[in-house]
C-alpha cells in the first residue's frame, strides 16, 4: 500500500485558514527542488530507512537543508490541524507529558529561558525556525553559494526544537489527532523525521527521551 504522501505534497489550494505559518517553498527548477522531488519519490517506495539516506554524489549540507525545510512544513501543517485544541488554558505550559517541560529562549531577543504556554512557545519556535530558513546566509537556495561553517549546528538546533512540537502533540493532543483521523499522517511524518535524525546523528538521545518508547516501537517495525 505504500505510505501516505508526505505532508508537503498537499496542493496549496486545499490549505485552509488553519495553516499555522506560511509554507516555506523551495524554488522550482533549483537543485534543492530536484532533491525534494527525489526525497518524495523514495518516500513513496515505502522504505523510510532508504529514503533518508544521502543520495549518491549529493552534498550533505544541502540534503539536510532540503529535509529540514520539508519537516518544518510538515510539522507546521500537522500542528495547524490541532491549534484549536492547543490553547492558553488547555496547555498553560509547553510540555511533553508530566516529566518534560520546555522554556523558550532564542539567544537573541530572549536570552534567558522563559516559561510560556504551549501555543506561545510553538509560535516563538516556528517563527524563529522560519527566520533561520529565510536567511540566505544560513540556508542558501542558489547553486554555488556555500553553506556557512556553522550550518550543521544551526540545523541540529532547528531539528531539536521541531522535535518538541511532535513531542507536545503526541503527549497532549493525541486524542484530538485520532478524532481528526490524522494519526497515520502524524506517525508517518514522525517516523520519517526520526529515521532522518538517526541516520545523520542530528539530535542527542537525551533530547528524544519524551518519545523514546514510540521511537523504539517505530524502529523495531522496520528491522
Automatic annotation (TrEMBL):
<keyword id="KW-0808">Transferase</keyword>
<dbReference type="InterPro" id="IPR036703">
    <property type="entry name" value="MOB_kinase_act_sf"/>
</dbReference>
<keyword id="KW-0862">Zinc</keyword>
<feature type="binding site">
    <location>
        <position position="91"/>
    </location>
    <ligand>
        <name>Zn(2+)</name>
    </ligand>
</feature>
<feature type="binding site">
    <location>
        <position position="86"/>
    </location>
    <ligand>
        <name>Zn(2+)</name>
    </ligand>
</feature>
<dbReference type="InterPro" id="IPR005301">
    <property type="entry name" value="MOB_kinase_act_fam"/>
</dbReference>
<dbReference type="Pfam" id="PF03637">
    <property type="entry name" value="Mob1_phocein"/>
</dbReference>
<feature type="region of interest" description="Disordered">
    <location>
        <begin position="1"/>
        <end position="27"/>
    </location>
</feature>
<protein>
    <submittedName>
        <fullName>MOB1A kinase</fullName>
    </submittedName>
</protein>
<dbReference type="GO" id="GO:0016301">
    <property type="term" value="F:kinase activity"/>
</dbReference>
<keyword id="KW-0418">Kinase</keyword>
<keyword id="KW-0479">Metal-binding</keyword>
<feature type="binding site">
    <location>
        <position position="173"/>
    </location>
    <ligand>
        <name>Zn(2+)</name>
    </ligand>
</feature>
<feature type="binding site">
    <location>
        <position position="168"/>
    </location>
    <ligand>
        <name>Zn(2+)</name>
    </ligand>
</feature>
Amino acid at each position: 500500500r505504500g505510505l501516505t504522501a508526505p505532508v508537503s505534497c498537499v496542493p496549496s489550494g486545499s490549505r485552509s485558514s488553519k495553516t499555522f505559518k506560511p509554507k516555506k517553498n523551495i524554488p522550482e527548477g533549483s537543485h534543492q527542488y530536484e532533491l525534494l522531488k527525489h526525497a518524495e519519490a523514495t518516500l513513496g517506495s515505502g522504505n523510510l530507512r532508504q529514503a533518508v539516506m544521502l543520495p549518491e554524489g549529493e552534498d550533505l549540507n544541502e540534503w539536510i537543508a532540503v529535509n529540514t525545510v520539508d519537516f518544518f512544513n510538515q510539522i507546521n501543517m500537522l500542528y495547524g490541524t490541532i491549534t484549536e485544541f492547543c490553547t492558553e488554558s488547555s496547555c498553560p505550559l509547553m510540555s511533553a507529558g508530566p516529566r518534560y517541560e520546555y522554556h523558550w529562549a532564542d539567544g537573541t531577543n530572549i536570552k534567558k529561558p522563559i516559561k510560556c504556554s504551549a501555543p506561545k512557545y510553538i509560535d516563538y519556535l516556528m517563527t524563529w525556525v522560519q527566520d533561520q530558513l529565510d536567511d540566505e546566509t544560513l540556508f542558501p537556495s542558489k547553486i554555488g553559494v556555500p553553506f556557512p561553517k556553522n550550518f550543521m549546528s544551526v540545523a541540529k538546533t532547528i531539528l531539536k526544537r521541531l522535535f518538541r512540537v511532535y513531542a507536545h502533540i503526541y503527549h497532549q493532543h493525541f486524542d484530538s489527532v485520532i478524532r481528526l483521523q490524522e494519526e497515520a499522517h502524524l506517525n508517518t511524518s514522525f517516523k520519517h523525521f526520526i529515521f532522518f535524525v538517526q541516520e545523520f546523528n542530528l539530535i542527542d538521545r537525551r533530547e528524544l527521551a519524551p518519545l523514546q518508547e514510540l521511537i523504539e516501537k517505530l524502529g523495531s517495525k522496520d528491522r
